[in-house]
Design goal:
Length: about 210
């Protein structure tokens, strides 16, 4: 084993600038077999210590790598958890939008049904108006001229002249002969059709008898 005191003495000499003394001490150590063997053993120990230190450093590096990997994994797990929460919120949002879309669809369906019913109603009214128009057209082209002819004929026979400017609920006019004029005015609300008919025939008969 190397004499540590000798080594320390050499170091002190070098620090104090005593180069020759340090060289003499080194020469003495190198000329002694025991010291040389000690230096070799010391060198081997230093190399072993360096190797162990390198192994230790490598182990520390592996530990640090494992720690960093574990940290990355934890961050990844946390990020995935956050992503899962975000996905859950997105699913809830999509479900809410789906419900709103269904409600909107139902409202649109009801509105469409109401519009179809309104269209059918208007179509029925249009058909009714078309039929009424045809009836009015028929009355205008066929019934009305015939009615006018009959009224004119009855007027000539009976001598009744109608006042068409009277109120809607009033029957007004006069019975005219060559010698007499007999006016009449009847309220439809107060008299029945039977009474009105008999009254007018009596009036016509009286006018004819007065000729």
């Amino acid at each position: 084993m190397v004499n540590m005191a000798s080594v320390e003495g050499i170091v002190d000499c070098l620090l104090q600038g005593q180069l020759e003394t340090a060289m003499d001490n080194i020469h003495d150590i190198l000329t002694q077999p025991e010291e040389v063997n000690g230096i070799k053993e010391f060198s081997i120990l230093i190399q072993e210590a360096a190797r162990q230190e390198e192994i230790h450093r490598s182990h520390i590096k592996d530990v640090l790598k494992a720690y960093m990997s574990m940290k990355d994994n934890m961050e990844s797990v946390i990020a995935e958890d956050k992503s899962a929460d975000a996905i859950g919120e997105e699913i809830n949002l999509l479900q809410t939008q789906h419900q709103k879309a269904l409600q909107t669809s139902e409202a649109a369906k009801e509105q469409c049904q109401a519009l179809n019913e309104e269209r059918e109603k208007m179509h029925a009214e249009q058909e009714a108006l078309s039929q009424k128009r045809e009836t009015v057209k028929e009355d205008t082209t066929q019934v009305l001229p015939k009615t006018r002819y009959n009224v004119s004929l009855y007027s000539c026979i009976t001598g009744i002249k109608w006042d068409y400017d009277c109120k809607p609920d009033e029957i007004k006019g006069y019975v005219s002969t060559s010698k007499d004029v007999r006016p009449f005015s009847l309220d439809c609300k107060q008299h029945s059709k039977f009474f009105t008919t008999n009254y007018l025939w009596d009036l016509v008969e009286a006018a004819v008898e007065a000729k």
